[in-house]
Predict the structure.
Amino acid sequence: MPKKPKKQQQSGGTPATVALTTAGVPFTVHAYDHDPSHPSYGEEAAEAMGVSPDRVFKTLVADVDGALTVAVVPVAGSLDLKALATAAGGKRAAMADPALAERTTGYVRGGISPLGQRKKLPTVLDASASTHATICVSAGRRGLEVELAPTDLADLTKAVLAPIARA
């Protein structure tokens, strides 16, 4: 019996950039040299790209009442877990185990993208994203970001927009 062919990514693409290309969404890729000693992946990205930290968003995975949920918030702030739980229709939220987040999304910590995840998770995008023409999120690996319209990100991830970030 012949083996099933493995699903291949587009040459040089990540699942996130492949998802954007497939959807026909305009985006720009920003690559930079990742420094493993930098204390913050998101702040490193903002500095390397010369972009304001309020336009660079980090992707966090949380557990909301037993269900993994993606939170996308500006790197300039932090995630308000209570606000995330409310936005996701739950009562309690806690950060997910990093190993579980990596296994579920198919990405490594510091490179988790809200796009092209192995398992589609409910997503909440901080409402501040809508104040920008474009925002940057991880393209699926450390040192690689995609810039796109927040409306396109919300549409592709079926995200709820809610104020889930704290300054």
